[in-house]
Specification:
This protein is of the alpha+beta class and 327 residues long. Helix content is 39%, strand content 22%. It folds into four domains: 72 residues, Winged helix-like DNA-binding domain superfamily/Winged helix DNA-binding domain (Arc Repressor Mutant, subunit A, Orthogonal Bundle); 56 residues, no CATH class; 83 residues, SH3 type barrels; 76 residues, Alpha-Beta Plaits. It contains eleven helices and twelve strands. The strands form three sheets. Strands 7-6-5-4-8 form a five-stranded antiparallel beta sheet, covered by helices on one side. A four-stranded antiparallel beta sheet has the order 10-11-9-12.
C-alpha cells in the first residue's frame, strides 16, 4: 500500500469513528474525490486493517460503515494543517468581531498543541506560522462595517436556544423591541434574519451594525414552519432582500470576458449558456438590484443586462470601456 493510500485509510477510519451514523460510499467518494468502485475498495481495506468495523443499511437503503477500534486513538496524524485551519478561522472570527468564536478556536488550537511533545509542538507551530505568513492577511480585503462584539455574542446566544432577543435598533432613542432570530447573514454588511411578533409572521432583516444593544432572553420560541436560511439567502444576490425585485436575472458577457465570467459563481442557482459567438449567458433567480449593480460595474462594458428591465436601466448608462482589467 502506498503512503498516500495509507494516509487516506487512516483518515477514513477516523471519519467512520467520528460520525455517529457512520460513513456511506457516496460520502467516501465526495470526501476523497474518488469513484464509487474505489470507495468500495477503501471499505474493504478498512475491514481488513481495523478491528471493530461494522456496517448497517439505513432507511435510505444506503450502507454505512462505523469503526470502534480502541487502537485508533493512538494514531496521531501530524497537526500542521489543523493548526493552520484553526488559526485562520480564529483570526477571521476576531476580525469580524466574533470574540466568542475566536476564543473557542484559540482554545482548540492550544489543546491540539498541548497533546504534542514539546519538540513536535514547536515544529508544528513554526510550520503553521510559515504558511500563515506566506498567505498574508486572512481578512477579506476592502471596506467593511464593524460589528459590536457584545451584540454579536448576544445574537449567537439567542440563535443557540433559540431564544427571543431584546434589542435597541436604529436611533439612540428608539424603543426596545422583541424579536425571534432565525439566522445571521454575514457579508460586506451583515443582517440578522428574524421575526418580530408585534409585526406579524413576516421574516425581516435587521442590519447588525444598526443594533445598538442586544440581550438574549430566557424565552424560547418556535421557528417559522419550513424556514431554511440557505433557501432564504438564495433569494438575494448579496444579503439584501426585496421581494418586489425577485425574478429571473439574465446577463450576457462579451466573448472577451466569457472565460473569466465562467469562473465565477454569481449565484448558487445559476445556469451558464455558452453562445455560438463566444459570449456567455448567465441566468439565475434573485433580488437585490443595487448589489448586482455594484458588482456589474466592475465588468465595464463587457457585460449587458438582458433582464430584468429595472436592473438594465440602473446599469446601462454606467458601462465603461476603459477598465484595464476584469474582476
Amino acid at each position: 500500500m502506498s503512503l498516500s493510500k495509507a494516509q487516506d485509510l487512516i483518515r477514513l477510519a477516523r471519519l467512520a469513528a467520528a460520525r455517529r451514523a457512520g460513513i456511506s460510499l457516496d460520502e467516501i467518494s465526495e470526501e476523497f474525490d474518488v469513484s464509487h468502485r474505489t470507495a468500495q475498495r477503501m471499505t474493504e481495506a478498512l475491514e481488513t486493517v481495523f478491528t471493530g468495523v461494522t456496517w448497517q443499511d439505513g432507511n435510505d437503503r444506503r450502507r454505512r460503515w462505523r469503526v470502534a477500534d480502541p487502537l485508533l486513538d493512538r494514531l496521531k496524524p501530524r497537526e500542521e494543517t489543523a493548526i493552520e485551519a484553526l488559526e485562520i478561522a480564529g483570526r477571521t472570527a476576531q476580525s469580524e468581531g466574533r470574540v466568542r468564536h475566536a476564543r473557542a478556536l484559540s482554545d482548540l488550537r492550544e489543546g491540539l498543541l498541548s497533546r504534542l511533545a514539546p519538540r513536535d509542538a514547536l515544529r508544528t507551530e513554526a510550520d503553521a506560522e510559515a504558511v500563515l505568513t506566506a498567505m498574508g492577511s486572512v481578512t477579506k480585503p476592502g471596506p467593511r462595517v464593524n460589528l459590536k462584539p457584545t451584540v454579536l455574542d448576544a445574537i449567537i446566544e439567542a440563535l443557540r436556544g433559540p431564544f427571543r432577543l431584546r434589542l435597541q435598533y436604529g436611533d439612540p432613542d428608539a424603543p426596545l423591541r422583541i424579536i425571534e432570530p432565525h439566522g445571521l447573514l454575514l457579508g460586506h454588511r451583515s443582517y440578522l434574519v428574524a421575526r418580530q411578533p408585534s409585526r406579524g409572521e413576516t421574516i425581516l432583516n435587521f442590519r447588525t451594525d444598526r443594533i445598538r444593544s442586544a440581550e438574549a432572553l430566557d424565552e424560547s420560541f418556535a421557528m417559522a414552519d419550513g424556514f431554511s436560511l440557505q433557501e432564504y439567502a438564495a433569494q438575494s444576490f448579496g444579503v439584501y432582500q426585496d421581494p418586489a425585485q425577485y425574478g429571473e436575472v439574465i446577463w450576457r458577457f462579451a466573448p472577451e470576458a466569457a472565460s473569466r465570467a465562467a469562473e465565477f459563481q454569481f449565484h448558487p442557482t445559476q445556469v451558464l449558456e455558452p453562445m455560438d459567438d463566444g459570449s456567455l449567458i448567465v441566468r439565475f433567480h434573485a433580488a437585490g438590484w443595487l448589489e448586482m449593480t455594484w458588482h456589474l460595474y466592475q465588468w465595464g462594458d463587457k457585460v449587458e443586462v438582458i433582464a430584468p428591465e429595472g436592473l438594465r436601466s440602473m446599469v446601462h448608462a454606467h458601462r465603461r470601456p476603459d477598465f484595464g482589467a476584469l474582476p
